[in-house]
Structure prediction request, 289 residues.
Amino acid sequence: MFPCCYNILTGLSGPPGAGKSTFIEYFGKMLTERGHKLSVLAVDPSSCTSGGSLLGDKTRMTELSRDMNAYIRPSPAGGTLGGVTRTTNEAILLCEGGGYDIILIETVGVGQSEFAVADMVDMFVLLLPPAGGDELQGIKRGIIEMADLVAITKSDGDLVVPARRIQAEYVSALKLLRKRSEVWRPKVVRISARSGEGITEMWDKMKEFRDLMLASGELIARRQKQQKVWMWNLIQESVLEHFRTHPTVREQIPLLERKVLSGALSPGLAADLLLKAFKTKTNEIHPIQ
Prediction:
């Protein structure tokens, strides 16, 4: 269940327009040219109305998608928490078994998906553009706390000065947050996928992180903890699905939903009635000893 940890599982996130796809293309080409095998698992947003998704990462990464040592797998969010599909974990295992030594998981924007991705990866990287108003105010504190590496993108041309300013702000901000690791302090780097500046240094930081975490035993401990989280996530999904498809519950759901919508019944009482019906019928079929 636990690969040797010589591969690197990295979660990538950032607000729309941060240049995630542009960075992955440049970064991925650099890695494959150095002999690595790269897998990109990109989670795309699904429409709440139609259920469709864009799945456009292969069109945004034209060079990388043609690389024989790179595998890009866009998957629709499908309404699951923050866009991280249940199959992402299985895809990680398959990629590890297929010999991909670097696995990147690109998530949707900045929101709940990042908290789910943090329970799948070794390293969490936050990509931020150099311009955007109140930068520190616009990013949730919890997401900054999860970041092992912050990369300020588009650090070229007229944006070099604002990129340096934001880098200094985040260096100061990260000093105030509690430590997540005994051996690693989050770093802030500036990169440019256009000029290539800082990307080699960023890769060096990622390797340093992996080596330190592996030597200290924290990497293996983190992966073990993630397996437990994954187990409970699967249990929650399965129990909820079993609850919804239970014959007695399924019969009562439409009526109770109408009563909640009309205000005749409170949501809490409706939930209690459904749970009572579920437990009563379940105990009749499988009596508690």
